[in-house]
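Researcher: Next sequence.
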Amino acid sequence: MLLENSSKKATVRGTILYPPGRSDLQQFDDDAFHRWYPFVLGFSDQLVDSLLEKFGVKNTEHVLDPFCGSGTTLIECAKRKIPSIGIDANPFAVFTARAKSEFRTDPDAVIAAATRVRSRYRKLVSSNRRFTDEAVYKYLDKSGMLKRGWISPKPLRKALVLREAIRRCKDERIASLFLLALAADLPTNIGNMKFGPQIYRGKQKKDVDPIPFFSARVKAIVEDLRSSNGRRSYAAPVSLLGDARSLKPVLRRHFSKKIPKIRFVICSPPYPTEHDYTRHTRLELAFIDSVSTRQSLRSVKRGMIRSHTKGIYQDDLDDQRAKKLPSVNAVSRRVAKAIKGKTSGFEKLYPTVVKAYFGGMKRHFGSLFRLMEAGGRAAYVVGDQAAYMRVPIRTAVLLGEAAESVGFKVEKIELWRRRWSTGIKKHLDENILFLIKP
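Model: Next structure:
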């Protein structure tokens, strides 16, 4: 059994960056660079380290994380001087992974730039400018997020003021760090969002000053840049926006001459559950100008594994890829039996989601198999589920069937940890599926 998540809380000289009691947040042994934006659904640094050790990865071999999220695998590889490539369909995840990889940034330059940002903020916030003409404001208003109270009007205006002050930075890399610092507190400390594990609206804040939060984040950035020995020699990760079901085109766009040989994969793909993964970063996506309309949001979702009913489209074919996966079809039939008599449109889609998820992951495995070196090894961190009419879904086992159908061999499945499911009032396993390409 591999390492459990640490219970350690990371602080910045008294400022808690990881709120206590949040078991869904990432926890780290060495949180340098990770804490710049701890992701709600991410895994731990010690898990990645243990897998790198287990695989015996050398600094001449590439590690791929095709569902890289906020970049935990990439940063741990960088610290070990191992070249890595991350891919994610969520533009904010890619933005975060890239910003966290700015290891060579001068901390003194960050301090000086932050002083200028705060000065600009004070001038802008005292002006009469309302920022309601901003594309971000219009999207949040039109999409109903303002009306539903995801963020209140006064805190939103001040967050937009800070965003404008950041955008005027001359150094784009430092501006990215500052925008990430703002985004890290945007949903919960500035906005009204809560995670438990579903996203919901908490008590609405009438007003919030974002500067103390921003300053604490910048302080953490500076501390990490100053205290991380050898950071300038870290291996620079490559973070790419793309669909993990079709890896080669994504890699070819960046590596125009020759795609590096992939020998190892460490990742945690979405689980088959009713989590709309874009909802966890909806405010952040708007603030980096990646989502401004319903169509742009749909475009992001279309590049993702079909893991929930809100990501299913009429022209999808991923469910057809699961036709030759007997265990997956058996689960889908059990779900279909359980929804008989149900009238909800979403419930009627449950059997389709099950097949579309594993069919999409089968596409991913096929794409990876064609890229991977013979003898290459992969680790997939996935959780069992019971989100669809409480029908048990042994995710790692079913993914193993999908992977073997395209040529991989299941090496083993190891328990990582158990977590409590509020929906079924039981513990569910999170496992690591180990694959090898013969």
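Model: The first helix runs from residue 45 to 55. The chain has two domains: 45-90+235-436, 107-227.
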